[in-house]
Amino acid sequence: MTDRYAVIGNPIGHTKSPLIQGFFAEQTGQDMEYTAFEAPIGGFATRVDEFRRNGGLGLNITAPFKLDAFDYATELSERARLAGAVNAMKFSGDRVAAENFDGVGLTNDIQLNLKFPLKHRRVLLLGSGGAARGAILPFLKQQPAELIIVNRTISKAHELVERFSSYGTLSAVGYEALAGLGSFDVVVNATSASLRGELPPVPAESFASGCLAYELVYGKGLTPFLHVARDAGARQIADGVGMLVEQAAEAFEWWRGVRPATRPMIEKITVPLI
To answer: Pick from 84, 52, 73, 65: which is nearest to 12 by CA?
Structure first.
């Protein structure tokens, strides 16, 4: 019998997950199907229960249900627990194991695909929402020289510093303080500004000459954030397509026990940054 997996979200029509996971299944010879389905707001648990009754073995979770998935799980990984959000689950009887692969997908893309080691680098993380929370622990495990979280509401950034302080060196500031902090080797935009065609208030001097500027939003081309970074002298600019594929590969390996090659899919769905 073909094993069943899926992605759940609302809306879900934009998702590339079936394309990516279907490619991984074909590449690795796995007998599985992967579909997408939408749940109504407030109806996450009901739809997941139905999927499990019909033989579903695992799910990816996208917006706005990552917190619902956190509450639904019976077992949380360290990454999911600290992030407070879940983007992958697998089912075995009454057991619901939950993971958050967003951050490890991001670090894999930065270090393995873009060849930009994080160790001993100054890292600036813009935003303190779910995407940022998922990135912090994987970043700290790479031993950067410094990780600074910046957010409009500084209290939210301070909450993350308190949560992750035992895992490495990190601090929180507001955007108004960035001008006095010098330049960074890696600047990651984990805000939603680029979805609206807006620029987070990060000064050009935050981008070190030869730095990496990484935009978590993907498929939008040269966003205002990447445009400023390029003009400021960034050596590399990248959007989140690599992160998308790498986190999908992490989930696939967790479910199936085999690691797919990610480069062909990244090349297939990359939009030029122009």
So the answer is: 65
